[in-house]
Design brief:
The protein is of the alpha/beta class. It has helices spanning 15-24, 49-54, 115-129, 157-168, 207-216, 266-275, 352-355, 364-372, 408-423, 487-504; strands at 6-11, 31-35, 64-66, 69-71, 101-103, 106-108, 174-175, 221-225, 227-234, 241-248, 251-262, 300-307, 321-323, 343-346, 374-381, 390-393, 399-402, 429-434, 470-472.
């Protein structure tokens, strides 16, 4: 029998796969990270708004379907995954987020873990990504065993004035925790190019910079970019994964390993498991519960432009402020009959080219005027899991999404409240635009974890119930989708899950005590 080529194969180089790679760096395991895209080049177009938003230089050209309607999804396939384009926000989930919570249109179910189990890993993740923040100001802040290592990024004058007006309304705005190398000796130039734009100077804390590159400094970790994984192959029993079937440079081959870690993103991970169906697993791998591809969630989200016709917004780096006063409802969770609304945080600075898609009929000079005089915000509310909201694979292999949207009443109430709040900061005009199916950057829930193999695909440490040597560590494992960003939570629990892989691997691994915390 041919010896396995690798001890562990990691599919995907985002925060989940990158965290596992870093935990295994320097161990006795031979580790391979597979990434379907290339390394994102550092080039002038990184900060060219025309190239990024109008020419869509970095967006995938593949076609997905929404209930049969073709569309080009907002997916970016590069080393580091979507963190190359994320807005640097690194929030912890709240303590109550891990419990069952009543919403307008149903119950957000409890997680199989609690905040206390995740808390030390949150601290490690914040240190790995160099998160800037300040605890204790956010009214929903969960307990912390250690403070942020770096002070928050200070507000620029326009935003400092808005913060004061928010406080004047009785609210408790707080510094948005951000993974940016800002401060003395830092690389950040405080530009306006963080949100949805790659950083050409490496100042953004992303999975490539903070996880993959450090892992590759150890000889036992290898990265191969430009490799698309087509399916996973099991042994005759169907219990173990024995190989990944890949296409590399136009050549199809199999890569064998003792253990496989799937971190391709909630949609692509589910699609890969479904495409890997075989005689033993006709509904797809890890899917005896029939939940793989189901419970797809993304936030209910709306962009808001607070406009003052006589005030220019000169802010360079706007991602410094957030509001959680209504995260758990009008009474901030004090009334048990109250239901959550959502979170409000600053967006990256909107500029004229970004408005051409949503406002094609508006003259360019007016789009420019709006962009110059706006302060830009992002309102988000929870999308509840629904079994009919799902990822499926068409006969031609393409992905089809059916998004059964939920909790929209609460989101509409939240957007209306946000508009009142923003007008109260001195901006008389507030424009809004919601996001639809094509925006998939906050995808989750398609390979959910839990305590019961009849209703979940993974156990609480992200190992597949149906397979001895398969883990899924991306937002697919989320059982619910809270009202704030997910990057820090994926990173943290991926670090935790890595410790269990030592026990699952048939290869004896010597782990570096520098990375093990538990």
């Amino acid at each position: 029998m041919k010896a396995n080529e690798y001890d562990i194969v990691i599919i995907g180089s985002g925060v989940g796969g990158g965290a596992v790679a870093l935990q295994l760096a320097g161990s006795g395991a031979k580790v391979l990270v597979l990434e379907r895209g290339p390394a994102l080049p550092r080039e002038a177009q990184n900060w060219d708004i025309e190239a990024v938003f109008c020419e869509q230089r970095y967006k995938t050209t593949e076609t997905w379907y929404a209930d049969g309607r073709p569309f080009r999804p907002g997916m970016f396939y590069f080393v580091g995954g979507h963190t190359k384009f994320y807005g640097t926000a690194m929030f912890r989930f709240r303590e109550r987020d891990f419990e069952a919570v009543e919403h307008d249109e149903g119950v957000s179910p409890a997680w199989p873990i609690r905040y206390a189990e995740l808390e030390p890993w949150y601290g490690q993740a914040e240190r790995l990504f160099g998160v800037r923040g300040q605890g204790g100001i956010d009214p929903t802040d969960p307990p912390r065993s250690s403070p942020y290592e770096h002070a928050p990024i200070p507000h620029e004058p326009v935003l400092a004035a808005i913060e004061e007006r928010l406080r004047g309304q009785g609210l408790k705005p707080f510094p948005m925790p951000s993974a940016v190398d800002f401060g003395p000796g830092g690389r950040c130039q405080r530009c306006a190019n963080c949100d949805a734009i790659p950083c050409k100077i490496g100042a953004k804390g992303d999975a490539e910079m903070r996880l993959i590159r450090p892992a590759l400094k150890q000889n036992n970790v290898e990265l191969r970019a430009g490799v698309r994984v087509e399916r996973l192959i099991t042994d005759d029993s169907g219990q173990r994964i024995v190989a990944a079937e890949v296409v590399e440079g136009g050549v199809r081959r199999r890569i064998t390993a003792n253990l496989f870690v799937l971190s391709a993103g909630a949609i692509n991970s589910a699609a890969l498991l479904l495409r890997s169906a075989n005689e033993r697993h006709p509904r797809g791998l890890a899917n005896s519960s029939d939940v793989v591809g189901r419970h797809y969630m993304t936030h209910n989200t709306t962009a808001l432009m607070a406009v003052h016709p006589f005030k220019r917004n000169t802010t360079n780096f706007p991602k410094t402020l957030a509001v959680h006063d209504f995260y758990f409802g009008e009474s901030a969770g004090r009334d048990p009959k109250d239901t959550p609304l959502g979170s409000l945080q600053l967006l990256g600075k909107i500029r004229e080219p970004m408005l051409r898609g949503p406002l094609p009929a508006v003259p360019k000079f007016l789009r420019s005027a709006l962009a110059e005089h706006s302060v830009d915000w992002y309102a988000q509310s929870e999308d509840l899991p629904h079994p009919d909201s799902r990822v499926t694979v068409r006969p031609d292999g393409a992905i089809n999404l059916h998004w059964h949207r939920t909790n929209l009443r609460a989101h509409r109430r939240w957007v209306a409240r946000c508009k009142d709040i923003l007008r109260g900061t001195g901006y008389p005009i507030v424009l809004s635009s919601g996001f639809g199916t094509e925006v998939v950057s906050h995808q989750c829930g398609t390979v959910r974890f839990g305590n019961d193999p009849a209703t979940s695909a993974l156990d609480p440490l992200c190992k597949a119930w149906d397979h001895d040597n398969l883990y899924v560590v991306d937002t697919g494992f989320f059982p619910v989708w809270e009202s704030t960003t997910m990057c820090l939570t994926v990173l943290s629990w991926s670090l935790a899950a890595s410790t269990n892989m030592r026990r699952s691997s048939s290869t004896k691994i010597t782990w570096s005590s520098a990375w093990l915390m538990m």
